[in-house]
Amino acid sequence: MSSLKPYDAVLLLSFGGPEAPDEVMPFLENVTRGKGIPRERLAEVAEHYLHFGGRSPINDENRQLLANLREQLAAAGAGDTPVLWGNRNWAPFTTDVLREAHEAGARRVLTVVTSAYPSYSGCRQYREDLADALITLSHEGRSLRVDKVRQYFDQDGFLQPVADSITEGLRSLPAGARIAFVTHSIPDTMENASGPEGNAYTQTHLAACEAVAARLGVETVPEWDLVYCSRSGPPSQPWLEPDIGDHLKQIKQAGATGVVVVPIGFVSDHMEVVFDLDTEAEEIARELELPFVRAATSGRAVEFAGSLAQLVLERAAAERGENPERPSKAGPGAWHDVCPANCCTNTRNPDRPAACGVDWVLPIDRTAEAQAGARQPEASR
Ligand SMILES: CC1=C(CCC(=O)O)c2cc3nc(cc4[nH]c(cc5[nH]c(cc1n2)c(C)c5CCC(=O)O)c(CCC(=O)O)c4C)C(CCC(=O)O)=C3C
Ligand SMILES: [Fe+2]
């Protein structure tokens, strides 16, 4: 018997990315459908992918994470539960993976998303994808129940590899170097709607930055800031600032002797990291003659997969009615397992169904309920 009971499968759910030049535009169209992203921005981002031969690094990062997660779950005695991989924007697509899981007999699936923080992009949008998949599958007569592990910006395996990498990076820089924690910029409206009470995106990032800074193996913790990359959307729409490029100019002017750029917002070295930081920001630092080191993401670290495996075990125990410990090493305490109705609201389309929340009901069930309700008076006649 598996220790992951009541779950029959674990799903690693990610963003997806193209792996050949002719996949770049169709991928970008999937990502930006209905988002109001300007055409020029799309062409510009396509260039980033083509610069790397049309192949995003994200899938290989996820293949490694998948292998590590399988290993860590097996080491914890849950090796007989299948661990699957699916994506929002590119193959293998979530719906196809869940269909196969159902065909193989799975009825309850626990999801781990490759995003550590709460926001519409990093949490609810994945829940909407799951809802879409469950609705499609229900029309095929396949009924599945899907849960999602809590956000993990506060876990040892996410924080410690980053701290270790910064400590090492600082060794190669002169005294007076600074740390620039970087995450994906999002529209102010998305920031204001993140978490159940708003502003959870920046709050949880700041909590993670503080926790990482406290773990550095240095005598004096350098000055640090949280800054942003990968802004898109029309220029008229406010997004979180400052951008990493502007920030580098600013700290150079303020006398910084070097910088460790830390992609704290990201789980792996995907395109935002290898292009926006390693290519674009590095070039700005070079022009500024500002010594530049890029710290690692946690995604390939064994400890990271170990923490995710612990969250999987924790959630399975909770679903069995046990009372597992809920460790949290950053911020005010463990993030919720089940999202409240108002969590990370979709500001464009607030009524769009999202799975893994208190208010999730498969629309087909709702239809069945309504029909049952409508039939009742007839039956009692
Ligand atoms: C918060 C956040 C994360 C971190 C959390 C998480 O990891 O989920 C993230 C990750 C990622 N974002 C990625 C790629 C893209 N994001 C885009 C667009 C957008 N991202 C947004 C936010 C985020 N994005 C937003 C608010 C938009 C505007 C459109 C919208 O409102 O949704 C676009 C469209 C072009 C552009 O405008 O840049 C692309 C191509 C990839 C894959 C990289 C690869 O292929 O290696 C990854 C991991
Ligand atoms: Fe993105």
Automatic annotation (TrEMBL):
<keyword id="KW-0627">Porphyrin biosynthesis</keyword>
<dbReference type="GO" id="GO:0016829">
    <property type="term" value="F:lyase activity"/>
</dbReference>
<dbReference type="InterPro" id="IPR033644">
    <property type="entry name" value="Ferrochelatase_C"/>
</dbReference>
<comment type="pathway">
    <text>Porphyrin-containing compound metabolism; protoheme biosynthesis.</text>
</comment>
<dbReference type="InterPro" id="IPR033659">
    <property type="entry name" value="Ferrochelatase_N"/>
</dbReference>
<dbReference type="InterPro" id="IPR001015">
    <property type="entry name" value="Ferrochelatase"/>
</dbReference>
<comment type="similarity">
    <text>Belongs to the ferrochelatase family.</text>
</comment>
<feature type="binding site">
    <location>
        <position position="126"/>
    </location>
    <ligand>
        <name>Fe-coproporphyrin III</name>
    </ligand>
</feature>
<keyword id="KW-0350">Heme biosynthesis</keyword>
<keyword id="KW-0963">Cytoplasm</keyword>
<feature type="binding site">
    <location>
        <position position="56"/>
    </location>
    <ligand>
        <name>Fe-coproporphyrin III</name>
    </ligand>
</feature>
<keyword id="KW-0408">Iron</keyword>
<feature type="binding site">
    <location>
        <position position="272"/>
    </location>
    <ligand>
        <name>Fe(2+)</name>
    </ligand>
</feature>
<keyword id="KW-0456">Lyase</keyword>
<protein>
    <recommendedName>
        <fullName>Coproporphyrin III ferrochelatase</fullName>
        <ecNumber>4.99.1.9</ecNumber>
    </recommendedName>
</protein>
<keyword id="KW-0479">Metal-binding</keyword>
<dbReference type="Pfam" id="PF00762">
    <property type="entry name" value="Ferrochelatase"/>
</dbReference>
<feature type="binding site">
    <location>
        <position position="184"/>
    </location>
    <ligand>
        <name>Fe(2+)</name>
    </ligand>
</feature>
<comment type="function">
    <text>Involved in coproporphyrin-dependent heme b biosynthesis. Catalyzes the insertion of ferrous iron into coproporphyrin III to form Fe-coproporphyrin III.</text>
</comment>
